Amino acid sequence: MTIFVTGGAGFIGSNFIFYMLKKYQSYKIVCIDKLTYAGNLSTLEPVMNYSNFRFVKLDICDRKGVYELFEEEQPDIVVNFAAESHVDRSIKNPEIFLQTNIIGTAILMDACRKYGNIRYHQVSTDEVYGDLPLDRTDLFFTENTPIHTSSPYSSSKASADLLVLAYYKTYGLPVTISRCSNNYGPYHFPEKLIPLMIVNALNNKLLPVYGEGINVRDWLYVEDHCKAIDLIIHSGIIGEVYNIGGHNEMKNIDIVKIICKELGKPESLITFVEDRRGHDMRYAIDPTKIYTELGWLPETTFAEGIRKTIQWYLDNQEWWEDIISGEYQNYYKKMYGNLEEV
Ligand code: NAD
Ligand code: TYD
Question: Of the listed 59, 84, 127, 218, which one is catalytic?
Fold first, then answer.
């Protein structure tokens, strides 16, 4: 069995590669990654020399390169994590999101059609459902919730999802889609809420919370997401969408306070900054389908997961210091201005 994992030098893709190589020692995993700002080859260092692992630096929008690799490796399954993934960057510059997230998805599926109707899994997001009101805690996203996006990021992911379902209906491509809630865990790029707050707190820098910090996200430990995808690619029903989430809804401000407490840092580091444009209020997944059909349940509680995550950032300082010392500094300045001087 050969599995193509695109975007495997990023946060969730790399965790998935580690999980799969450990669990299925007879499988070959081929990682395809363009190594954008979010991709980090050093992340894959521990598996680089495995005989059943191969890394290929490639843009999923490079049709010729993608076809050549399919021809050479003849994969059995393709799992597409490759994406531009940060909402704030999509607000500043949408175009690359349309290119990678939509066109890249189409090219991968064209290759799947061309080289033997290969099974294709699209890693999508709960953000395609838009948001829920804060005062209706009885409401959750199901797989039948209408697509209703807010940001260029979520719109590009929703477009890709529609294309995936179209390839199923029109061409009979064997596809599945998973829509997961917010992940956290090791190797999370420090532009996203949890790693940004951990890294800033460790550096005694201000912790920028958008608006009033009352927006709610449904947090899932990344390994639980990987387990769900493993189940779907082996036992999921072709043509189906599966929501993944652990009923762990929390306000942003509460997350930041937990991080301060765990690290022994003062809450006075928290600073409220201008809100994100079009900021979704609440995400909340109903995971009934994946539980009843595939028996998936999250295994890591938030209390356990956040401690493991913080410990990972303490133990792997070099990994994130390399990141924040580079191009990241320009991004940070553009995004947060002269925060430290306020
Ligand atoms: P990430 O930004 O950490 O990693 C993305 C990876 O894709 C990087 O390694 C990058 O180099 C690579 N990439 C980008 N453009 C590429 C291209 N054109 N060709 C090849 N590689 C390219 O993202 P992540 O958080 O690991 O998210 C992975 C997937 O999961 C995305 O599709 C995202 O939409 C989805 N998702 C993420 C979350 C979350 O909380 N992070 C939740 C639900 C779904
Ligand atoms: P993020 O990690 O970017 O994920 P997403 O927008 O895909 O849910 O943000 C999570 C939440 O944290 C979101 O409501 C925005 C908020 N946030 C802040 O308050 N401050 C920050 O510096 C960042 C990056 C996010």
Answer: 127
**pLDDT tens digit string along 6-43?**
999 999 999 999 999 999 999 999 999 999 999 999 99
Give the SS3 label for residue 118. Answer: coil
In the reported structure, the alpha carbon of residue 138 is separated from the centroid of ligand 1 by a whole-number distance in angstroms of 30
Ligand nearest to the backbone CA of 66: 1
Catalytic entry in 33, 59, 84, 126: 126
Residue 252's region, left for phi above 0, alpha for psi from -120 to 50, else beta, is alpha
Q: Which amino acid residue places its CA nearest to atom 19 of ligand 1? A: 59
Q: How far is the CA of 188 from the centre of ligand 2 (A)?
A: 13
Residue 280 lies in a domain: no
In total, how many domains does the chain have? Answer: 1
Q: How confident is the model at residue 342 (pLDDT cuts 50, 70, 90)?
A: very low
Q: Which two tokens stand for residue 237?
A: 């029903």
Q: Is residue 235 part of a domain?
A: yes
314 domain residue, yes or no: no
Q: Is residue 145 part of a domain?
A: yes
Q: Which sign, positive or negative, has the C-alpha torsion 244, 172, 84, 319?
A: positive
| Structural domain harbouring 58 | 2-185+220-246+285-301+327-336
From ligand 2's centre to the CA of 47, what distance in Å? 31
The CATH number assigned to the domain holding 227 equals 3.40.50.720
- Cα(67)–Cα(59) distance, integer angstroms: 12
Answer whether residue 224 shows pLDDT above 90: yes
In short, whether 85's Cβ falls inside 6 Å of ligand 1 is yes
